[in-house]
Amino acid sequence: MFGLFFSIFIIKYLIMNVPIYDGCPIWNEESVPFGFYNGDTTFQSDAVKVSKFCASRLGYPLVDIELQSSSFFTAFEEAVTTYGNEIYAYKIRDNQLSLEGLTTGSSLNQALITPSFEPIVRLTEQYGEEAGSGGNVPYYSGSFTLTSSIQDYDFNTFMTSSGYTGSEFTHGIEVKRVFYENPMPASARYLDPYGGFGFGGAVAAGMIGFGGFGMGMGYLMAPLNYDLQIIQQVEMNEMVRMSNYSFELKDTKLRIFPIPNFSGEIYSGSSLVIGQTLTKTATVPTVTFAVNVTSSLIDLPTVTRGGVAVTITQPAKGVILGDAGINNTYKFKVMESGSGYVSGDIITVSQAQIDGSSVSISNSTAALKLTLTDSNITSICAGGKIWFEYILRDDRINSSVKQTPANVTNVSNTPYNNPTYEYINSVGRQWIFEYTLALSKEMLGYVRGKYSSIPIPNSEVNLNQGDLISAATAEKTQLIERLRTYLDETSRQSLLNRRASEAESKMVELQQVPYTIFIA
């Protein structure tokens, strides 16, 4: 029976003309599919030894091994690669936060990695931006000029006038702070030594509510945190108790309380400047001047503000100046100042007013319009400005994403290569030998599975392909789990926990040592 059994196998392999393992493996770099380690002489030497080891564990020379030397070499290459993948995948998982942003140009196989605070700093930048104390999103400032009887101010209008249009500003702005007039820090006013405060006497002693600094010439020494608290107290007091207005934000509207009202009183800085020359700013009628003519005095009661007509209780008066000719450049000169004007007001000189003056006019198609600027009046507006700090929301969105194709951004481009077999220690090599054996069993099982049974007279012989594949699968799983467990036990967190436990145990042990009492 056994003679027939071996005869069938001999016939089978003679027909297929494929040689099997003969017990004399010879290294051939063409026998491995990838050639990751062909340049490593230690790998080449161990490949031959591992082939003999696996063949012996599979029963050679007592039984034939239906594999070739190249089969063992391939399994050995795969085992080394699997070992490196497990090791470096764990290293990436343990250090990914510190590796993000690193250049991908150099291998980390032999690198010593120290945890970095960079990922924590990147995270705190987001908190700093929201708290207004730093971060990576720029802050901007803007303002609305308060207008009498106007309570609501639209941020959409502000965005349009500031050029924030287009797809790059889709998400709009986010207002972070609103305040009346541009604030000046308390340290530059009440506590400013150049202003007569901040050093010596009652002020420095805090007898009138705030202390200060001394320029190094006779001040009351106090803890630094005391000065900081005083500064915060002064600024908070002015913000809460001394604010001219309160406000509320709803959608894109800023609503001011109380409603600004500047009528009935001549505010300083709301008058046109006498002698100021105003130039035309819009389409004007055809005007004919005589030689060096100055028109008679014209009242200016009509003012447009934000598209709405505004009544000026004390209008200004002026004259039209021009040279001889038709449509020569002409201007309007203020002769008597008027109060209540605001920068940006559009003054309209009607056709009837021009006709009533000493200037002749023909083919009139539009009124004369003059737009006031800051230089035409003493100041912008008696009501001042409402200031606000804001961010562009698109800046915040874009700040969280940075395109860095040459840097580590995820586990797929962290620069780890296949391991250098020469540097693997004996513990790692033993794992590789055992994993190579498991792979060899698997390959042999698949080979023998092609002929699961061999018919013989009155019976058949069953091969052990099922046993080989089952054993190989179990051994591979066990080896992977053992390696991962070992890596978990040597992770940074596990090692730190172990060191802390050891330190605690040492302290407990030292407490049991009796203290020596010295008597002098």
Explain the overall architecture.
With 520 residues, the chain is an alpha+beta fold. Among the domains are: 2-93 and 416-504, no CATH class; 277-376, no CATH class. Helix content is 36%, strand content 17%. The chain is built from twelve helices and 17 strands. The protein has helices at residues 2-16, 41-57, 69-99, 118-131, 155-161, 201-205, 224-241, 351-355, 393-399, 426-448, 465-489, 492-511, and strands at 140-145, 152-154, 173-180, 246-250, 253-257, 277-279, 287-289, 298-305, 308-321, 325-326, 331-336, 346-349, 360-361, 368-371, 385-392, 453-456, 459-462. The strands form five sheets. A six-stranded antiparallel beta sheet has the order 6-11-9-8-12-14. A hairpin with a 2-residue loop joins strand 16 (453-456) and strand 17 (459-462). The longest helix has 31 residues, at 69-99. It is elongated, with a radius of gyration of 45 Å. Mean pLDDT is 81; it is low at 1-8, 10-15, 193-203, 213-218 and 263-269.
Classify the beta-strand content into a percent band: 15-25%
Measured distance between first and last alpha carbons: 99 Å
**Low-confidence regions:** 1-8, 10-15, 193-203, 213-218, 263-269
Rg over CA atoms:
45 Å
What class, by secondary structure content?
A: alpha+beta
In brief, what are we looking at here?
By secondary structure, the chain is of the alpha+beta class. The chain has twelve helices and 17 strands. It is elongated and about 135 Å long.
